[in-house]
Structures are given as C-alpha cells and as structure tokens.
Queue: 2 jobs
Job 1
Amino acid sequence: MLNYNKKIEEEIVYGEYHTHTIKRHLYSGYTKYHYAEVVEFESSGLALLLDKRIQSCQIDEFVYNEAAVHPALLMHPHPNRVLCLAGGMGGIVREVLKHENVKEVVVMDEDPIVSEIIEKFLPHMKSSVRTNQKLNIYFGNCLEFLSSCEPFDVIIFDSTDPTEDSPYASLFTQESYHRIYDALNADGILSIQLGSVHPATINKFLEKKINIAEKFPFVNPYHVEVHSLGTSWGFALASKREYELNINILENVRYNKLKSSLHFFDDISYKRMWLWPKHLSLNINKI
C-alpha cells in the first residue's frame, strides 16, 4: 500500500522517473488481474494505479480519453455501433457516449472490479453511463467475445500498458489483431493505445505498429502529451480501407457529429496529433 504524504517514483523508461507526492490514500486491494489503488496526488488530483503504474490522473485524464476516442469516431462516416474493449467503465465510455449518432455502445472487459472502483472513487470519470440505454456491459474473456460478436463500426482498444508481463498481453498478439479485424465492418476503424512515445523507446512503439500492420492495410500512428504520465502517449488508427486525414474538414464534421463540449480535443490538437518531430518521424516514416 502507498502511504500518506509519501512520494512515489514511476519509471518512465529505464533510469528515468516521474515523481508524484501523495496527499491522501483512498483505496487499495486486489482484483482478478491487478493490485489496484486510488490516491489523491498533490498536483494531479485523484488517480488510479494498477500494479503501481499510474493509469489516469484527474488533472488531464480527459486528454488521453478524448485522444483515444474522437479521432476514430469523427473519421468514420457512420459510427453506429462501437465496442470499448478492455477499457472498463472509465473515461473512454464517457467520451463515446458524447456522440449522439452512436446507437449502441458495447463494453467488454475482463476485470469488473476495476470498473467498480472507478464508479465508487473516481466520479470525474463517470457520466451516468450505467443507466444509458445505448450501453451493454459484459465481463469475461475478450478473445472469446471477439470470435462470436456481431461486427462493429469502431473498436476502441484501451488495455493497460502493452508490456510483456501485462495480464492483457494476449490482446496484443497477431491472433488478437486477426479477431479484431474480423470484428469490424468493411469500413470499420480500430483505435488502439500503443504505450509511451519516448526517444529511448520509439523502436518498441514502432514494433507494435508493425505488428498491427501485418493484418490491417492502413495504420496511422499519432500521439499526445499526457503530462501526468510523464511522457507523450502513442495511439494508432487501423482500418481495412484508407481514410483521409483532412484537418480542413474537421470543424464541420465535429459540429455535426459532436454536440458536447470537450476539454482538449479541437482542430489544433487534432492537427498536432499527426505531427512528429524530426528525430522521431525519421523512424516513423520508415514503416
């Protein structure tokens, strides 16, 4: 358990740490897959930790969640049916439900206790989603679900960090990508988080992108700064057909599809997501 008024150091990459001071400790306990904690940091507010790794902080969780959800849902012409895969009942679901044209939202996760912790201790992550008539919630084996589900227009894949020792590691395999591919409609889009983007670890990010590209013909990586996580965070949109990344039409699309206000995502942030600094883009463009 983390102690009150203690500092924690989270390793971002080997030998590099990000330090947070804990103001108070709200919860700790074991789930099926994780050791879960809820704390309040001095500067970043309420935070969820799984296995001593920060998953979200109140001060900027919306940056991560808006970046994970809205590019795919705005790009797809008719995202009627959306799957939130391995992300529990957190901010991902909240953001998907802001799209009024979405008719059905399915949540599939393997760890119901994490969702219960979010519901109880992290009110800023909720939006009365459990009572929303569009929502269907399931807990169980994600791979088995993908093998038997009806196809989706968009899949938001928001597992914990895709590391080798992750309990969700099986979801970052070729078998999993094949099942996700088959679970998408012909014009479907996968939005997937691919971990931290750091000069020391950019090759690991690229390896994940290459693995997805072995199944999906179109894979577009992007990234956003999530300060509470200590680094830029990487995502990718993968699809069976090519989509144009046209910043010039986003404003009209966003106005027509998304009536709710957002804290982070707008035309400028969208454009910046696809821009890579030279020392990283040299590697990105090789793929």
Job 2
Amino acid sequence: MPEMPPDLLRQAVESPGRRRRPILVLASVAAATGLVILVMSVLVWRAPEPQPAVSPQPVPAETVTQTPRAQKQKPRTVEKIAPPVEQALASAVAVVPMKVPNGKDFTPKAFLDERTLLGYVAKKGYDPAPEWWSYRLDSRTFKRLAVLDYAVAPVQTPAVGEESIAWFKIKDENVQILTIPVTGGTPRRVVSFPAERDVDKVNGDTVHGVRLAIGDGKIFWSSLKSGGVHHVPLSGGEPSFVPDTEGLHLVRWPWVGPSDERLRGVRNLLNLSTGERPDDPARAVCDVTWCFTEDQAVRRDGGKAADLPGRHPRRIVGDRFVLLSQVDKQGRKADAVYDIATSRVGRLYVQSRSKPNPTLYVGTDMFHFRRGDTWVVVHN
C-alpha cells in the first residue's frame, strides 16, 4: 500500500480488504477521526504500514463538577502546554522499537496482556511471509509468534482474548478467520464463509471484511458492510447468527451498535450478554462508559463530569483517553491526550507549520505515533 502524506492521515481506523480483478476492501468507519478529518479510506489488499499516539497533565480538583454544562462554552486556553505524554502518563505509555532483530518493521496492533504488545512484522513493500511478533515491555524483548501466508491490511486490528489471537484474511472471495495461541504457533483456520461484496464492473468489485472480538469461548464478528453479528466456537464449527443484531456492528465485546452512529461516537449501544441498553447523553460523543461534550468528560450514566484541559475533543480511546488540542496564551498549539482515569494530560506534539506533524494511529483500545526511531504507544 503506498505511503500516505503525514497531514492527510491523522488517525487510522480498523478495517480490511483484498484486490482481485481489481477487488478492493473497504476500510471500516469503525471510529477514527483525525483532528477534524475523518478517515474513511478504501484499501487495496496489500502489505501493511505502521500507526501513532497521544499526551497528558493534571486537572485541579475544583474543576470537577457533577453535571455537564448545557450551553456551549467559549473555547479555553491553558496557562502552559502539557508536558510530553511519556512524562505525564508514564504508566500508560510504552516506548517500543520500530524494528525487530531481523530488521523488519514492527507495527503495534494490540496488547496481549498489560506488559505484552502484539505487532505485525513485514519488510517494506509487499512481504509474501509477514509475521506476528510480541514485545515484552518489562524485558524489552521480541518473540516471533507465527509466520503468515497472507498480508494483513494496514489498519486491521486482530482480536485478543481467552489466550488466543484471531484475525482474518480474504481468499477466493471468502472470509477466513484464523487463530493462534498468545504464546505462538501455526495459524489454524477456524471458519470460512463468503465475503460480502459490491459489484462494480468499471472500478472493480469491493470485497468487505469483518470486525472481530473474542468472548465466552467464541469468536464474534460483524460485517463491515451490512453489520449483523455472528459467532463460532473458538475450537471451530458452523457459524451462528446472534438474534436481534441485524445491522449492528461490534464495538468491543459484548457491546454492539449501528455503524452510522460511529461518526458521532458510540451510541444506541446493546450489550449482547445482558440485553442492557444504556442511555445516550445529549450533545455528547461517547465510548461505552465515557462521553465528552465541547468542554467536559461525562459519564454516560451522568454520575460524574470533569472539565477538559483543552479544546476540540474529537475521540475517546479505550474508554479512557480523550484526544484534544491545547492553545496557550501565547498562541502556541499542541495535540494532547487527557487521561480520565488519572485526570492528567500529556502532550503528543507541538503543532508546526514548518514541518509535518506525526501521524496518529488510533485503534479501539490504544493509539500510537512515531517519535524518532521508536513508537510511542498509549494504552490502558
């Protein structure tokens, strides 16, 4: 896949695809907004490219209120731009090498546990034998987990759960879901089924992938085109449809919601395990538990609201990190991240007109960006 200009892609979303006659795979609108740019990219199924992170600093206790403001507040300035995210949110930040010992590029994808990062490894350009590797944050060591026979889309995120890693590939116009143990092994195909597609004789057919989750001893998926949730036992078998999920898409197990709501946050949620349908606060962009308005982070249940140390909040990651901008009284601007869990904010980078800003790659539970020859990864 050709490299994109840094200012064009401020955040990358999850999704897949494959080219065949020209066959394209449509990227998921799953929830990624750059500064004010929503990435809804169409991907040619080729080898992957990397992905970037965010920044924090404390908010005074007196700024905490009990109810969100109804009226729009004047955009605020800050006394001082937040310190680097590595300092302000040290416990939530991992600094990871960009290459594994054999010299191939390492792209962070997901966490296997609190101290182990899963990454996709491939040489630049097309790699016929890409690999899954893990990186231990405590020992700073890499381990190769599996060799793949098919490229993983640049913005595709694997599912992790119950000691398993699951991902998919599209082959012969079928979606094939594969797994390995988190400790590594030979990829095993769990299930295969026809992929949804849009026929276009002029520009080439579009083949749609799926979004995955693992839970309750099963692999769940929803089509990136029409939605609807299916599942199959981790051990394999015939897929089954989850009742009452027509048109719904996986957010993170066990939560699902309509895809057209993702541009405005996660709304109209349904818990597949309990049947719960939480309320949606007015004029707020939400994750599962937390939402934000123009100037506040608000619990979905209305139990707490905290003033945001910045302006233009545009995304919540991992139901914890709010991506926003800061402007000080001298007019200096920076992209930052506010950590709801610790009430701290850290700087990702200072905005510059003379050089491009780093690309921020955003997933469901983490985000990362490049700093020098390392990845800075912010995660739960």
